[in-house]
Structure to design on (303 residues):
């Protein structure tokens, strides 16, 4: 049975601000604010975190779609699983205590982010979990080095070292500060679930990150031996900036381009100056004992 809904304390009065430099992202969620962003204006919004509920189904599924794109995952079933275990994890919603808001078309019921964890151990008999396991094996086999590929297979096949899929998704332009209370709440909820002997006692976590690279980074290896002195340092932008700290602490990682799978209407088109950036995914694997120290580093960084 799902736990009763409860609100989490997350960052309030978060400012959604145009960066004012050449880096930009355009997607369907931001079109109505384009004019204000061009002028460098700020949009001040109150957010709150709370347990996922049935009405959040479509919002959560949309966030999962921007992460997994065309991967063969039953995202509807995965969304239902996230809602069913709502004693662990939070959705980000616009605060309901907005004063003076008479707009019937308000996005107050939209889901702006989801932070949760899914048990990927083989004992979890859900078809969507088996699909996630097969996806990780396939991606590691195709894109990881031998050591990383072997480690991914090891943690997936060894139930004595349970693996959790950390999901940390939100729409673009919601600042990284919001991730700290969401992740801290998640750690507290995992501990509480473990105290009740629920299957959340993980040895490892895997996190799939969204990042974007300048086009020349794709062909950098080919150019390096020809124009080593003239080759500019390639640019990498993390969709969720705090995930760069996760990457620094990860024991194993690999990445791959999703340029052919990307839907710019959903995930946005990123640019650096006049250059369109290529969407990538980076898969991180790290020990569960590192999670709290990673959150502490994120807290120091975003503050």
């Amino acid at each position: 049975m799902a736990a009763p809904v409860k609100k989490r304390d997350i960052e309030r009065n978060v400012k959604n601000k145009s960066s004012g430099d050449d880096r930009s992202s355009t997607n369907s969620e931001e079109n109505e604010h384009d004019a204000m962003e061009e002028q460098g204006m700020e949009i001040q919004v109150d957010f709150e975190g709370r347990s996922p509920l049935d009405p959040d189904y479509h919002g959560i599924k949309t966030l999962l779609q921007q992460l997994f794109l065309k991967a063969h995952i039953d995202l509807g079933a995965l969304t239902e699983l996230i809602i069913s275990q709502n004693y662990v994890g939070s959705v980000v919603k616009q605060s309901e205590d907005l004063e003076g808001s008479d707009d019937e078309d308000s996005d107050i019921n939209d889901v702006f982010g989801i932070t949760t964890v899914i048990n990927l151990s083989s004992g979890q008999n859900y078809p969507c979990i088996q699909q996630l396991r097969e996806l990780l094996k396939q991606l590691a086999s195709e894109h990881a080095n031998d050591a990383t590929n072997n480690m991914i297979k090891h943690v997936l096949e060894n139930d004595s070292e349970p693996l959790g899929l950390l999901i940390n998704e939100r729409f673009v332009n919601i600042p990284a500060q919001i991730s700290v209370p969401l992740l801290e709440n998640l750690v507290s909820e995992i501990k509480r679930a473990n105290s009740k002997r629920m299957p959340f006692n993980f040895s490892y976590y895997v996190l799939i990150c969204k990042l974007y690279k300048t086009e020349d980074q794709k062909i950098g290896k080919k150019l390096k031996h020809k124009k080593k002195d003239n080759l500019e340092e390639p640019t990498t932008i993390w969709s969720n900036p705090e995930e760069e700290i996760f990457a620094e602490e990860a024991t194993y990682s690999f990445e791959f381009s999703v340029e052919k799978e990307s839907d710019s209407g959903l995930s946005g088109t990123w640019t650096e100056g006049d250059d369109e950036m290529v969407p990538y995914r980076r898969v991180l694997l790290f020990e569960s004992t590192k999670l709290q120290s990673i959150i502490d580093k994120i807290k120091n960084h975003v503050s």
Summary: Residues 11-33, 35-39, 98-106, 217-230 have pLDDT under 50 and may be disordered. The two ends are 38 Å apart (CA to CA). The longest strand covers residues 275-287. The chain is about 35% helix and 25% strand.
